């Protein structure tokens, strides 16, 4: 078998593999760290966990998708981007949980980058 034939056979083998067997890297995304906690998005919801280790707690459980959680400078509030009504807007909520408070209202998509004094 020639080198070219071997190469084509290898390419054909990898091209025929089932792509659904790949790992979905979107499961654990957008981490942020405060003095005592870590926030992240898992399965489209915002979660927090103690920085020292322990059990993660889900803060959001809506049908929408949340992303980019960021701790406030004092670590008491999390801002995040969420798509609840077809448009990405910025919301905040206490790290202890509660109802999200919507901060942006215009028709363009908004994204949390970080907190600003």
Describe the protein's topology.
Blueprint: H1 3-15, E1 28-33, E2 37-42, E3 45-50, E4 57-58, E5 65-71, E6 77-83, E7 88-94, E8 101-102
Antiparallel strand pairs: 1-2, 2-3, 3-4, 5-6, 6-7, 7-8
What does it look like?
By secondary structure, the chain is mostly beta strands. It contains one helix and eight strands; from the N terminus they run αββββββββ. It has a four-stranded antiparallel beta sheet with strand order 1-2-3-4, with no helix packed on it. A four-stranded antiparallel beta sheet has the order 5-6-7-8, with no helix packed on it. The radius of gyration is 20 Å and the shape is globular. The model has no long low-confidence stretch (mean pLDDT 85).
Keywords:
117 residues, mainly beta, four-stranded antiparallel sheet, 8 strands
Number of helices: 1
Gyration radius (Cα, Å) is: 20 Å
Distance between the termini: 67 Å
Give the quaternary arrangement of the chains. Answer: single chain
What fraction, in percent, of the residue positions are helical? 10-25%
| Secondary structure tally: strands | 8
Note the main sheet.
Answer: 4 strands, antiparallel
Shape: globular
Mean pLDDT: 85
Structural class: mainly beta
Order of helices and strands: HEEEEEEEE
Outline the low-pLDDT stretches.
none
* Percent of sequence in beta strands: 35-45%
Strand order of the largest sheet: 1-2-3-4
């Amino acid at each position: 078998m020639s080198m070219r034939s071997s190469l084509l056979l290898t390419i054909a083998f990898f091209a025929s593999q089932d792509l659904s067997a790949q790992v979905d890297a979107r499961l654990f995304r957008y981490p942020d760290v405060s003095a005592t906690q870590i926030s992240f998005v898992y399965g489209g919801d915002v979660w927090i966990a103690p920085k020292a280790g322990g059990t993660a707690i889900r803060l959001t459980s809506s049908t929408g998708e949340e992303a980019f959680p960021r701790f406030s400078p004092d670590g008491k509030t999390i801002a995040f981007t969420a798509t609840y009504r077809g448009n990405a807007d910025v919301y905040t909520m206490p790290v202890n949980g509660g109802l999200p408070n919507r901060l942006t209202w215009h028709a363009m998509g908004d994204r949390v980058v970080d907190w600003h004094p």
